[in-house]
Each structure stands twice: as structure tokens, then as C-alpha cells.
């Protein structure tokens, strides 16, 4: 890949609309999404790429913030999670593409979520936040894109939970994009109501839990830190750190240090809302309606979405007539591989994006 400069002076912006109707029929009086953009939208509004993010991450996908511009929980000098993939001359080339990276409805970092103020009570929604679906998350992103003047997407791309969204986009708006790039993910979720209850039980171990009404009690940092440490280990951060050959105790300390800022910024109730949205998620019955081309990417060592799921997914896509190709990232970094291992799969992404851009 070209050795190009990173994007600088990135801003996190907010989009707000009113009376947003969820799939359940519930209406949010106000919906806000945090987002970032990179590159310039073409006059015809057809050179855009939507980048979606993972379960517990943010919409900071590329570049570095302007001084003092990082939203709460992020740092000005933090590079975006896909910084090596998005930018001038990179696989998602901002010399030609307008990239929108949207925070999820229900997530932290500025979007409408359980920590937001409920207009009916003047207090945070907390556990009363309405139940949402992955489709609701996509509908909210479509409203953002409409606001920005995007008329058609070249692609939707994202890792993990972002991959669920990419598949949902292809189902909800089949004519709106040329392709999707779901990474370290699946078109189905194995999450059950029991899994969500297990998460709540872990959060409830924090002495401040109070049935989810902890905002006036200083939050639930103890439980959130413990959950984040376990998550980062499961995602493969220890393997990533081990490449620098520190002592085992130093690896543990580094993981705890990485977990603490996230535990301060991310809301436990958001984890519950986003986990519930995955219960029963399965777009495979709608595969025949997909018109987008697919680049499906998995990491060889990912424990969450192992390569063993690939034959079944690819077989279903082929049977539905979907133009799909597969790439496996050969990495020890597991679920976290797509960002740091950009050099290993970026060339395949660049070729795929170039082919999509030829469609105009």
C-alpha cells in the first residue's frame, strides 16, 4: 500500500433529527448521531463510503483530532481504528471518496443512548431506553446520510458489530450501495436473551449498579473495567502486546491501563441496549434480496468469528446469487486484526474498492 499521510484535524460532529420512529413503533423525540467525515462529497452525492464500528468502540475510524477536538473518552492524538485503511492513497482512498463514519444509535461518544436525557423526565433514560434493533441503527444512519446529501454509497464497511450493520444495510437498502465489506463478523448473531441477562449480572456486581440507575452514584467503573479487561483479552490484545516482547506482568498492566479510559467513557446501559439489539439478528433469510457485491473478511485466529463459519456463509451467499469473495487475514491478532494488520488485507480491499468505483 502507498505510504501516505494520515488525516489530521478530524472533527467529531453531531447530527440531530426529531420524532424518529423505531421498528417497534416507539418514537424517540430526538435522535442524535455522532459522526466523522473524511474526504469530499462529489456534486452528485455518489462517491460516499459508510464506515461502521464495533460493539464497544467509537466512530473514530481515521486520522487524528484537531487539538482539543476529541469527544469525551477519546484523545486528540489517538489514531482512528482503521487509520491505515482510510485516507489519501489508502485502500479507502479519500482523494476520491467521501467517507462517513457513524456512531451507532444506542452507543456512547455522543449519540442518543441510555445516558442521554429523556425529555419526558429530565433525567437519563437509563434502563428505560427503548429496545432497538440493528435495522434501527441502519435507519438512523440513512437519515444522517440523507442530511449530508449522500445519494448513493460505493460501499458499507466495518468490523464486528459494524459487519452486522453492513449486512443489514445490504438487506434494508439493497439498491443504495455497490458493495459491502463485512469484517470479522457474520450475517447472524448467536446472542440470546440469556446472554444479555448474563451481561446485566456482571454489571450488577458493581456496588453502584442500583438496577441500572447509577448515574448519580459515580458510575460503575469497577464492573466496566473488569468487563473490558476480559473483552480485550478475548479480542487478542495480549497477542498484539506480546509482539513487543514485554514481561507477562507488563502485558496484564497494559491491558488494565487500556481498559480504564474505556470504562470511564462507555456506558454500561449502552452495552445492554446494543447486546439486546443482536438477539435474533439473522439476515440470511433475506440474502436473495441483496444486490451488493460482498468482500467478506475473517481473521485466521479470531475466537469470536472463526474461519470455520466461512464455508456455510459463502455457500448461502452463492446459493442466493450474491457476487461474494472471501479473504482471510493471516494474523495472530484475532478479532482486533483488521486495523493493525491493514497491510495484509488492504491490497484486497483496495482492489475491491477500485472495482466498485468503476460502477460510478
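Sequence proposed for the structure above (360 residues):
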Amino acid at each position: 500500500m502507498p505510504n501516505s499521510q494520515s488525516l489530521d484535524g478530524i472533527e467529531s460532529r453531531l447530527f440531530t433529527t426529531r420524532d424518529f420512529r423505531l421498528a417497534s413503533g416507539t418514537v424517540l423525540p430526538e435522535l442524535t448521531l455522532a459522526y466523522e467525515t473524511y474526504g469530499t462529497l462529489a456534486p452528485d452525492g455518489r462517491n460516499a463510503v459508510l464506515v461502521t464500528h464495533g460493539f464497544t468502540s467509537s466512530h473514530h475510524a481515521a486520522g487524528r483530532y484537531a487539538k482539543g477536538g476529541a469527544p469525551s473518552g477519546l484523545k486528540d492524538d489517538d489514531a482512528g481504528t482503521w487509520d491505515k485503511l482510510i485516507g489519501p492513497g489508502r485502500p479507502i482512498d479519500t482523494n476520491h471518496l467521501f467517507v462517513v463514519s457513524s456512531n451507532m444509535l444506542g452507543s456512547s461518544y455522543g449519540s442518543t443512548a441510555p445516558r442521554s436525557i429523556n425529555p419526558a423526565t429530565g433525567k437519563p433514560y437509563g434502563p428505560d431506553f427503548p429496545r432497538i434493533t440493528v435495522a434501527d441503527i441502519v435507519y438512523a444512519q440513512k437519515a444522517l446520510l440523507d442530511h449530508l446529501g449522500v445519494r448513493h454509497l460505493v460501499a458499507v464497511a466495518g468490523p464486528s458489530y459494524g459487519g452486522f450493520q453492513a449486512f443489514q444495510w445490504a438487506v434494508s437498502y439493497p439498491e443504495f450501495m455497490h458493495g459491502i465489506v463485512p469484517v470479522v463478523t457474520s450475517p447472524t448473531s448467536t446472542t440470546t436473551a440469556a446472554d444479555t441477562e448474563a451481561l446485566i449480572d456482571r454489571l450488577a456486581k458493581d456496588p453502584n449498579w442500583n438496577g441500572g440507575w447509577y448515574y448519580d452514584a459515580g458510575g460503575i467503573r469497577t464492573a466496566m473495567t473488569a468487563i473490558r479487561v476480559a473483552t480485550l483479552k478475548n479480542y487478542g490484545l495480549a497477542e498484539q502486546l506480546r509482539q513487543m516482547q514485554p514481561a507477562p506482568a507488563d502485558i496484564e498492566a497494559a491491558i488494565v491501563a487500556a481498559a480504564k479510559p474505556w470504562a470511564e467513557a462507555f456506558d454500561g446501559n449502552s452495552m445492554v441496549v446494543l447486546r439486546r439489539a443482536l438477539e435474533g439478528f439473522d439476515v440470511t433469510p433475506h440474502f436473495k434480496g441483496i444486490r451488493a457485491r460482498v468482500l467478506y473478511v475473517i481473521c485466521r485466529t479470531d475466537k469470536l468469528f472463526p474461519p470455520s463459519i466461512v464455508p456455510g456463509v459463502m455457500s448461502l451467499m452463492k446459493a442466493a446469487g450474491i457476487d461474494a469473495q472471501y479473504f482471510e487475514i493471516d494474523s495472530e491478532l484475532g478479532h482486533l486484526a483488521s486495523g493493525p494488520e491493514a497491510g495484509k488485507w488492504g491490497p484486497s480491499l483496495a482492489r475491491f474498492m477500485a472495482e466498485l468505483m468503476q460502477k460510478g
